[in-house]
Write a structure and sequence with these properties.
Strand content of chain A: 15-25%
Largest sheet of chain A: 8 strands, mixed
Distance between the termini of chain B: 37 Å
Strand content of chain B: 25-35%
Largest interface: A-B, 51 and 43 residues
Number of helices of chain A: 16
Largest sheet of chain B: 7 strands, mixed
Strand order of the largest sheet of chain B: 10-9-8-7-11-12-15
Structural class of chain B: alpha/beta
Number of helices of chain B: 8
Order of helices and strands of chain A: EHEEEEEHHEEEHEHHHHEEHHHHHHHH
Helix content of chain A: 25-40%
Distance between the termini of chain A: 58 Å
Radius of gyration of chain B: 18 Å
Order of helices and strands of chain B: EEHEEEHEHEHEHEEEHEEEHEH
Radius of gyration of chain A: 26 Å
Strand order of the largest sheet of chain A: 3-2-6-7-8-9-1-10
Structural class of chain A: alpha+beta
Helix content of chain B: 10-25%
Shape of chain A: globular
Number of strands of chain A: 12
Number of strands of chain B: 15
Oligomer: heterodimer
Chain lengths: 429, 276
Amino acid sequence: MRRASGKGEMMTDKLILYKEHLNSFLRKITKGFELIAPVRNTYGDTLFEVISSVDDVRIDLTNRPILSPKRFFMPQVETLFAYRYDKSGYTFKDAADSTPRVIFGLRSCDTRGILFYDLIFQEGLKDKYYLDRRKDTILINLGCNQPGENCFCKSAQSGPFLTYGYDIQLTDLGDRFFVEIGRPRGRELLAGWSYFFRPATQTDIDAQYEVVLESESKFRHRLDFDAAIEKLINQEVDPAVWEELGNRCQNCGGCAYVCPTCYCFNIFDSPGSGKEGERLRTWDACTFAGFSRLAGGYNPRQDKAQRIKRRFYHKLFYDKQKYNIPSCVGCGRCADICFGRIDMLSFIRLISEQRERTHESAHRRLGELLLEAGLISRKDLDSAIEKQAATGKPLGAQLIEMGMADKEAIARALGYQLKIPGTTETIED
Amino acid sequence: MSNNIYLPHIAVIKDIKEETGDIKTFTLAFKDRKLKKSFSFRPGQFMMVSVFQAGEVPISISSSPTQPGNLQLSIKKAGSLTGKIHGHKVGDEIGLRGPYGRSFPVERLIGKNLLFVAGGIGLAPLRSLINYALDKRAEFGRVTILHGARTPSDIPFRHELSRWPKERDVKVLVTVDRPDSKWRGNVGPVTTLWNKADLSGQDTLAIICGPPVMISFVVMDLLKMGFSEDDIISTLERHMKCGVGKCGHCSIGHQLTCVDGPVFTYREMKELPTDL
């Protein structure tokens, strides 16, 4: 076993940890902390898990975990408090908890997601449940040498390596990790087991720099966030795009659930037996139909298209306006999970490619498309256009009203026309 | 008590007044003596009301802070939770968090004539400010109150609607959509009361609360009459879960109704997108 040469003094912020010492280091962490790290399970999925025994699991630092670690700060279902009623009245049992934890192997996107959560839950009145869990958690980031297929953190300016926000950051240099200390508690953690580390040399620093450069050149996707945000601000997204995205959305909430920055939640009571119960909170998603619905039935975001529009405006424009950074960290998980391809990656690509196209001309071409696809006849189209001149309705709506085409056919044709990935292939098949 | 913003405080129902078939006013007192003493709010703010085993719902405070020890919530039976509140009796306990939200800009209203326009239960949050203004009568000019209800039996706060006009320079006009055989008053939307209300002269601020469609018609008319966008103030209703700017439910554009509102001037409302 290789011996680290550092002798207990950790003066520098740049260190080296040999890979053969990693498990021993993690084993030490489990003595004083709850350790969370990406683990590859028997189904082949990599997920962040609480690890009690380092030797009993397969820690996976190659694949980006399929879920963000946000559930460790705000569980998908969480008891806020329990209550009980007896002759002296109500008593509450506050369920907030705090455990000293280390999350090891966070990707830069995930660490940035946690930093975004920090903004939300610290702002204004403080959220005790989140902050209690957060305050004793040490974040060990792992820079990405190899961006994943749908990753675009470089475009989102949140990776592949971090320049701030981590307690400790590791870079894989092959046989060893380059270790950067970002915050005092990161230093404290390492100081406890300094014999695992040696100070980094200039050769290590150069090697790390090279890895960063190499990684940055490997991204498949380059998205222009600023241009996309500009389009949203200037209302330049064709209304037909929102319609189409609305038609393609299956209301599953998957995008919000896998997103490291989506934080919206619901609160409700779970009645127990007799005079006791619990108040819970669960993750929620703005694409769900009931998200904004009022008790009287009025829903300011009645249509799916409005809800999708809301989602992208919130993440790209409103959060940028409020926090000076859009709440997309480029992890690409929404692109992995959304079978309707209404994910951030597809959306930004779609509106970036979308040329100046007026609503009207888009719909004129819709007629031609339906005609080409044999979904309507020339006669039908002509009479719909004629009627449309009188009613002023969009051509699609006019065709549906006249019973000449169904909603799905129009959605597919629109998708084709707007070059929404997926639809194109479907129609060409 | 606790630094946990989600834990409610227990309040006892001291009185229940049946306003209409589906609106009741609950008078509440905090169980905790210290809190009962220290609790303060401003007209236009709301409380998160807990019905244990059912959940929470935001409700505007309908009483005025000028009448201390008299915290009132006027609640319309609109869904399952408000239905459960209606089943409560005097002496029952509920949970309260708050007060939350941006109130009416009371300081800005001082010295002005006030025009209140309310539709249905929308009179509840305005009642807080109306009683506030009447309790500090010397600080405000002429007060005009217009209220529209579905039918004569849907008019809440009847006692006050007949008491208010007895005060100096106060005018109250009520209209209904569907009259009954005994109704001798105005019939039609609240905007049909304009010519009966004396809105001449300047320096009037309009404070509106009601269903979205009513708000838009009232605002349209007020702008035509020459009201400036800053002098039209309204409160917006949105679905709220946390009430403190975290859960995201009450968002409109980049604003959150619970912390940036619920009170907005029309100029501010106009900036908010309608579908986002």
